[in-house]
């Protein structure tokens, strides 16, 4: 029996290098040597909350109906990171935050994140969990209907939607646009990005939501992981370009190497 199966050597090496790159990235993140460039949408979050304060209208933060056990868990975590950032801004500046919930699994985490944000700003007594983080439904369109109805009634000045979204994305985007809210949206679900891009004022596309979550949380684990991903993408791009050039000249060294 062969110790190493043919065709799996390179994937094994790639996996080991991924571990090493992630470890190095996290270490550099803890030392403050990894930086994430600021995205325009992040600056716009502060502008949106300030606009809500000036208009005397609330801020909505919706992070989708994902959970912690599906393939969309990372998007949910990114959305929760933004929720904490938005909650702290709202507490500091005096804007009322609303974050309708759709997952009983994620809701306790969201509540603690918002509570910690208000506590950090010394405004815990101004937070009403039952009113500001209501649970509408775990059913997609029942939850969406609750969000739409609440938005129509409260007419928020700002809406931040970052996380996994499905068919409700366009419903939300149109509703908040209709009530005059400034919108910052982002998702890594390919099919929903065009809807956000068509209606929202600022859009975080794909993996930008993970970078945004890492930036606002300053968590070295997230920052280091983002750095490791970027290093791997750079290596893959370089290999792709070199392989394409060599293959054009009839040399298949790179493609043969990847089959080991």
Describe this structure in words.
This protein is α/β, with parallel strands linked by helices and 260 residues long. It starts with 8 loop residues before the first helix and ends with a helix. Strand 3, helix 7 (168-178) and strand 4 (182-187) form a beta-alpha-beta unit. The chain has helices at residues 9-30, 40-55, 73-93, 107-120, 129-132, 140-154, 168-178, 193-199, 208-217, 220-248, 253-257; strands spanning 59-62, 97-98, 158-162, 182-187, 202-205. The protein contains eleven helices and five strands, in the order H-H-E-H-E-H-H-H-E-H-E-H-E-H-H-H. The protein has a domain at 59-214: Rossmann fold. 40% of the residues are buried. Helix 3 (73-93) crosses helix 9 (208-217), helix 6 runs parallel beside helix 7 and helix 9 packs antiparallel against helix 10 (220-248). A five-stranded parallel sheet has the order 2-1-3-4-5, sandwiched between helices.
Secondary-structure blueprint:
Layout: H1 9-30, H2 40-55, E1 59-62, H3 73-93, E2 97-98, H4 107-120, H5 129-132, H6 140-154, E3 158-162, H7 168-178, E4 182-187, H8 193-199, E5 202-205, H9 208-217, H10 220-248, H11 253-257
Parallel strand pairs: 1-2, 1-3, 3-4, 4-5
Helix pairs in contact: 1-10, 2-3, 3-4, 3-9, 6-7, 9-10
Key attributes of the depicted protein:
alpha/beta; 59% helix; 260 residues; Rossmann fold; five-stranded parallel sheet
Q: Which series of helices and strands comes N to C?
A: HHEHEHHHEHEHEHHH
Helix content: 55-70%
Provide the CATH architecture of the domain at 59-214. 3-Layer(aba) Sandwich
Structural class: alpha/beta
Write down the overall geometry: elongated
Let me know the number of strands. Answer: 5
What's the N-to-C terminus distance? Answer: 17 Å
Point out poorly predicted stretches. none
Number of helices: 11
Radius of gyration: 21 Å
Sheet with the most strands: spatial strand order: 2-1-3-4-5
